[in-house]
Amino acid sequence: MINVKPDSPDNKFRLARINMLKVLISSTLDKSENCSILDIGGTYNFWHVWRDKIDWETTHITCVNHDPHHADEGKDQTNITMMQGDARGLNSLTDNQFDIVFSNSVIEHVGSWRDMVKMANEVKRLAPRYLVQTPSFWFPIEPHARTPFLHWLPEPIAYRIVMARKCGFWPKHDTVSGAVNAVQSAKLIDMRQMQTLFDDAEVVREKFFGVTKSLIALKK
């Protein structure tokens, strides 16, 4: 059975993304003694799982997360800096401050298309290389709700399903407001949208049994 747990080292999809990241790190270290990575939406726990897969001695990671509860994580790790911020406007960070921007399953959560454009512009501004992943709209299972076809349904139907039962990471909601907020919390995009957002990158299709599961914008 394929392990798809987000924080498991046996998750083959995240391992493949880390291997892509390793290529970007190697390209950086060919020209520099150290590599700085900005992980938009990152957490200490993610890097605790995957740290042994990269050259930890020469890499420093800054994790920026909208959730303030992550700010105090990993204080004992000199290679990880945690900060609170909004992916749509990281104004405290300067142009090309980092060697690489990395972001895993975040851009679908920032809001409308206008918000996604803002995040994409920040990614391109902050580093010459980047890797940004997001679930594909055309994969039949909604990855957050773990429910087939839910994201393809009209919202008035989708929120009623969330009110009727627990759906993956989304608990059963007793109110219309709660259910609608859950449904609207993730807006999946397709290949053309991803290529438009990251027009200077190659968009790689991550496949599961031949079906595109995720899209990865890769700027080398």
Number of helices: 6
Span between termini: 32 Å
The poorly predicted ranges are none
Structural class, please? alpha/beta
Biggest sheet features: 7 strands, mixed
Named CATH architecture of the largest domain: 3-Layer(aba) Sandwich
Per CATH, what is the topology of the largest domain?
A: Rossmann fold
β-strand percent reads 15-25%
Under the CATH scheme, which class of the largest domain? Alpha Beta
What overall geometry do the principal axes of the alpha carbons give?
globular
Q: Count the strands?
A: 9
Number of domains: 2
- By CATH, the superfamily of the largest domain comes out as Vaccinia Virus protein VP39
Helix percent band:
25-40%
Radius of gyration: 18 Å
* Cross-sheet strand order for the largest sheet: 3-2-1-4-5-9-8
Mean pLDDT: 93
Order of helices and strands: HEHEEEHEEEHHHEE
Notes on the structure:
- With 220 residues, the chain is α/β, with parallel strands linked by helices.
- The two termini are 32 Å apart.
- It has two domains: 12-138 and 186-219, Vaccinia Virus protein VP39 (Rossmann fold); 145-185, no CATH class.
- Helix 4 (155-164) packs across helix 5 (176-184).
- The protein has helices at 12-29, 44-50, 113-126, 155-164, 176-184, 191-197, and strands spanning 35-40, 59-65, 80-84, 100-104, 129-135, 141-142, 147-148, 202-208, 211-219.
